[in-house]
Amino acid sequence: YGLRKLHEGIAEGEYCVFFRNNHFSVIHKHQGQLYLLVTDQGFLRQDGIMWEHLGRVRAATADSLTDSLTH
């Protein structure tokens, strides 16, 4: 229910503040998919900006979308 409401409420290309698991994040809608900006220390030395795909609440994956997201 919650993910469906996020998809409906966030416009394509929009950035928002998102609160989940007691942390604030940046959420972005790109090509109809929702992504969270990765701020974990484990990605500190990665090239580019890392985004976590928010396709399912239990199984999120981190992807480098530097080529796709040029903002």
Describe the protein in words.
The chain has 71 residues and is mainly β. The chain has one helix and five strands, in the order αβββββ. It has a five-stranded antiparallel β-sheet, with no helix packed on it. The N and C termini lie far apart (29 Å).
Features:
71 residues, mainly beta, 5-stranded antiparallel sheet, 1 helix, 5 strands, 11% helix, 38% strand, disordered C terminus
Order of helices and strands: HEEEEE
What does the overall shape look like?
A: globular
Fraction in beta strands: 35-45%
What's the total count of β strands?
Answer: 5
Which segments are poorly predicted (pLDDT under 50) over 5 or more consecutive residues? 59-71
- What is the terminal separation in angstroms? 29 Å
Mean pLDDT value:
78
Radius of gyration: 12 Å
Helix vs. strand class:
mainly beta
Q: State the major sheet.
A: 5 strands, antiparallel
Widest sheet, order of strands = 1-2-3-4-5
Topology:
Layout: H1 2-9, E1 15-20, E2 23-30, E3 33-37, E4 50-53, E5 61-64
Antiparallel strand pairs: 1-2, 2-3, 3-4, 4-5
Q: How would you sum up this structure in a few lines?
A:
By secondary structure, the chain is mostly beta strands.
